[in-house]
Design brief:
Elements lengths: L14 E7 L3 H6 L15 E6 L5 E10 L2 E7 L3 H12 L5 E4 L4 E5 L16 E5 L7 H10 L6 H4 L27 H9 L5 E7 L8 E5 L4 E7 L10 H12 L1
Antiparallel strand pairs: 1-4, 1-5, 2-3, 3-4, 6-7, 8-10, 9-10
Organism: Sphingobium fuliginis (strain ATCC 27551)
Protein name: Folate-binding protein
Keywords: Transit peptide
Length: 251
Amino acid sequence: MSYLKPMTGTTLTDRALLRISGEEAKSFLQGLLTRDVLGLKEGEPRWTALLTPQGKALFDFILWADGEDVLIDCEASQAEALAKRLTIYRLRRKVAIARADELAVHWALEASGKPFDPRLSQLGHRWIAPPDEGDASAAFRAHRLSLGIFEGVGELGQDQILWLETNAGELGGVDYDKGCYVGQENTARMHYRNKVNRRLVAVPLAQADEKRQKAALADLGLSIELRRVEDVDPAFLPGWLAGAVADQAAG
């Protein structure tokens, strides 16, 4: 894979870590996020999101257990905004929210003994460790998008796309039996009624529909678009998503 050749290390320099600590850390996040936090275990990361009350994506990130603390693996450019948003919800709970700059997120397509990315094993291995001097961000982005997986404000927007429209259900980004969280009512209704009417997909830039476009990635020749299920060309769907979209269209 040509995009792996420029890699000089494994650090994802476009990611940052927030540490959520305190005796109520996990219960605090449990009432906010789309995944179960109480059962989070070390070495078993979970992809999740903080939504609007209407169920639209605000921030997506990966959770890691670190003893009784939780590490949030998030976009570096959004770390401060996410910390501020979480602080609004904290109120008087015994929770501390701080940067963990002594640690970094790492990635490699092959890394024996390291956890797989929780969204899809084909994404490769992901782990937390002190930073190295290299940068694997561009390689990981190219690999991730080659699999039709989207993340971050630049691709998902903020308060623009319903969480299930980002294909979060197929990528393990929601637990339907965890209880209440912000945006839970609409998310659960869409799931149980099989009403995910639109999907985020990547199409060749030459075939872009600007009215549906959420991001244009000229360097990769891709257009990220939110299309109605019945208008999605099966050729644009990655294998892990094709079956779910076919079932949706048939239903």
